[in-house]
Backbone:
């Protein structure tokens, strides 16, 4: 089924939706950049006006070195995984958190812990790498994925 209206009217309605959604996401704390685009003069010329998307979202990624060798989620020996100190994860301001990347000692791969799994994280007192006891977030194994660098 073809949407009603002219090609230009449908394009303008789509752009209005992009701005509406971007404003809603910004009110929720997201950092959005709307990608400029132009309406093709006609339906037949639309292929010449393809863009690279409607918007970009900027998120924060925390990158941490782990001084151990692992080449899969299964070969990582410390579960649940210590994500970071609670105060570091929950710090106010800044960009919304995408997640944590824990890089292996050879820099050939990393574990990814997405912020979208945070509801499954637990808080526990833990001695950090400086030997100080801190309240930390720990993530269960089933929410950790391995990726090659």
Residues:
């Amino acid at each position: 089924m073809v949407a009603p209206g002219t090609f230009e009217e449908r394009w303008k309605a789509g752009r209005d939706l992009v701005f509406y959604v971007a404003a809603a996401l910004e009110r929720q704390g997201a950092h959005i950049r709307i990608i400029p685009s132009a309406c093709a003069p006609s339906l037949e010329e639309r292929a010449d006006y393809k863009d690279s998307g409607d918007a970009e979202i900027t998120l924060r990624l925390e990158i941490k070195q782990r001084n151990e060798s692992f080449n899969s989620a299964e070969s990582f020996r410390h579960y649940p995984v210590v994500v970071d100190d609670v105060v570091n994860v929950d710090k106010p301001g800044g960009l919304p958190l995408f997640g944590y990347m824990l890089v292996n000692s050879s820099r050939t791969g990393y574990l990814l812990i997405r912020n979208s799994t945070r509801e499954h994280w637990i808080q526990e007192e833990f001695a950090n790498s400086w030997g100080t006891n801190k309240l930390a977030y720990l993530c269960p194994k089933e929410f950790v994925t391995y990726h090659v660098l």
